[in-house]
Prior knowledge:
This protein is an alpha/beta fold and about 400 residues long. Helix content is about 35%, strand content about 25%. It folds into two domains: about 10-180 and about 295-390, Aminopeptidase; about 180-295, 2-Layer Sandwich (Alpha-Beta Plaits). Strand 3, helix 3 and strand 4 form a beta-alpha-beta unit.
Amino acid sequence: MNLQPISEDIFSRIVDVRRDLHTHPELSWNERRTQGRIAAYLDKLNVPYRKAADTGIIVDFPGKFADAPSVALRADTDALPIVEETGLPFASQNPGVMHACGHDGHTSMLLGAASLIAQDNDRKIPIRLLFQPAEEGASGAKAMINDGALDNVAMIFGGHIDRHYPLGTIIVTEGAVNASSDKFTITIDGQGGHAARPHETVDAVVVGSLLIMALQTIVSREVNPAHPSVVTVGHFEAGSAHNVIAAQATLKGTIRSQEQSVRDGLQQSILRIASSIGQLHGAHVEVDIEEGTPPVNNPSDMVKLCEQAARQVVPEEDVRELEVANMGGEDFGDYMEIIPGCYVRFGSIIDGTFPHPAHSSKFDFDERVLGIGAAYYHAVSKVASEEILKDLK
């Protein structure tokens, strides 16, 4: 199998970009050096672009049919607040910040695709590239949309490097490929007092503990097992001393689901349980739910286009489906609430190494995936363009 389906020159250039971005990672809404690095690459291609969403970039390749809707390709650019432990020679030089989710690779892939698209002299349909900031902050896609990223766009395609699958595989799955990602904060106001006189108090620790245990029954007893869902409490804070019963407690957690109806049900269950336990113990309990990214569901017609494109880059047997449900959030869903699209994954295991997952301080990937991703984005832009041409005729 050809694991480098693009020219050595383009591959070398995007590897250089990836390593430079990895050395200088930037958190959501701080991607200014990253933005400049992308712009410098595009300048060398003599490709027109504009800044968007403060630290993002939108590139427009014109087509013969200038008024036709565009095909959009998207990459995310931000890093995470993680201390890197990869030992790479190009490891992060920004203390406490790391590209631990492959966004340095996503950006480089799309720049490689830009090089390939720029060589197309017979382009009929406009192609738009979106270099989006703040995916980890779950607000970058909406900001790009507000800046016109989807204006006159017919369909959008994106993807993610994935250390769970072998290099040379492209994972194309119909239906749910990412879960919604919502946050909740529960505040408990009880009655503090001396630990030796608990009968004079309403113990916020006890109320919070009961609430945590009750929340764990939502998925196991209220949700159809066929619908993957998660309710996790990741933060529980209360108390100030060993001999003082806490008057207040705070719980913070996440809600994940792959269907909107299940998402709504999980939120309502949290509200109901919190209210009931508060009444049961005489505490005042408030719940604040912050809706995040929606689920990402790939429609069948878009999946067929992506499969066709993927087969132009890797052998048919290496175009696979997700092996298990993915409960991670991805703001690509914000785009797909407006226009159709498809989100794939690029296998990138490094042979002989432990497959550290995304958001790990040791996350890394086989850089040959950059060429595969660039070739795929180029291929899917062509396949999607042909589909748009059918409608124009």
